[in-house]
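User: Um, what's this?
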Amino acid sequence: MSYGVLGLPAPSFLNGSLSSTSGSSDGGNGSSGEANHVEMKPTVSGYKWRLHIQYDGTNYAGWQYQLSPPTIQCLVETALTRVTKLDRKDLRLVGSGRTDAGVHALGQVAHFITPFNYDTLVGIHAALNGLLPVDIRVREISPAVPEFHARFSAKGKTYHYKLYNDTIMDPFQRHYAYHSNYNLNAALMREAARHFIGEHDFSAFANASQNDGMPNPVKNIFRFDVVEMGALLQLEVEGSGFLYRQVRNMVAILLQIGREAIPPDIIPKILATRDRKELAKYALFVPPHGLCLVNVKYNEDHLRLPSDCPETSFGRHHSISKCKLPFY
């Protein structure tokens, strides 16, 4: 598996390094079980750490920080402030990108900074997961080189959108797949998805966002697969990046094509207009709960292991000590 991809299944990727002085805080190693800091000469203004995070987005208002309703970033930052004893402005937690309310992640990536180093990451890893709700989990913590940036080092992302294509919805899929009781034509959807592959101006498939300024609308889609798994249709799209709501808007038009309401060759015509209003003539929206951020691909140089750092933590197993009492 490529070391340049962060996501599931979890790779044994290599990471980068950090910086600053030690001993400024004990990191709450009492009840949190966090390890002591070790003195190391800083190389930049702080030690940088990378997080691989998974979450069920059902109960949250997306990734981006806000207090109410709660978001993933808010809860991760709250846990980090308790474990590190630092203010959120000092932690400078940054995610690879924002996910909307209700969207899930198998491979969200973030980084944060501390003014001290750790001799091991196992303790802080356990402490974070002990403080987070059960539907948010830090799967890995690793040191990161100063050049690594969770957002700006990213070279590509993969999203999956699940459709449940049956007359009756599976109740166990209701939070993770969008129910379509039409008999979808997967072959037509596959044919249509090929029109997205390559470099295009995706203005017609992007919703306006006040937070993104004027993003470059030209994106490169590497692959777009329609995978049949029984009643589930999994739409898998990998690209250099995505505009706001782009993936869900692409899914929406494919859904209409799968219903045989419009032909596959409508996609290049919509792309050519560069007008979001043109898409609205043919497709509405699909809800967020079928969408999942699967992995983020990074510049390999930014994932290298620094020379003086603790090992990546993947969590720890507990063991049962042998009973010392004799059995009768």
